[in-house]
Amino acid sequence: MALTKDERRALELARDAIANRRDAYICHALEYGIAPVHPELKPACFRLLRYITAAFGIEPGNEGFELRDWQKQNGLGGRDWDQQRADRLAWIDWMLGKPLPGEAVKLEWREKSDECEESEYCGRRFLLTWADWNSRYVVTEPDAAYHVIAELPMNRRDEVDAAIVAHVWPEA
Description:
single chain, alpha+beta, 2 domains, five-stranded antiparallel β-sheet, 5 strands, elongated
């Protein structure tokens, strides 16, 4: 799911509210917890609400429909509150781009120069530079003061994407 920076921030705030039990529902967190407190995120919150209701196939005026109802309709009923919270958090993680356990992520790299490529992952930019002086790849995050994510020997180019995923999702 391609998210704007504001949509990503709104989902991160909703995830935090649900994980810390300040809210139980994604839509409620977006509409009543985040949008009023962060008016700059209100348009993003309502775009996400439209996405979620469309994903559930919710008819206008039937806003009482929730994940539990969808789970029952799809043979996944009987989940307790803790399981439903975990399901909501997993869905937010999926919307944010977190890979599923064991899922390999392949980034698309664009050449910036003869010695540098650029890619984006989960709303963040990364640069892959060939360090001629020591025959290594250096992965940096330019929007984080060019923080070095990884240095890999030239024969380990295939590990660059995994290093970035591990940096963005250290608990994955």
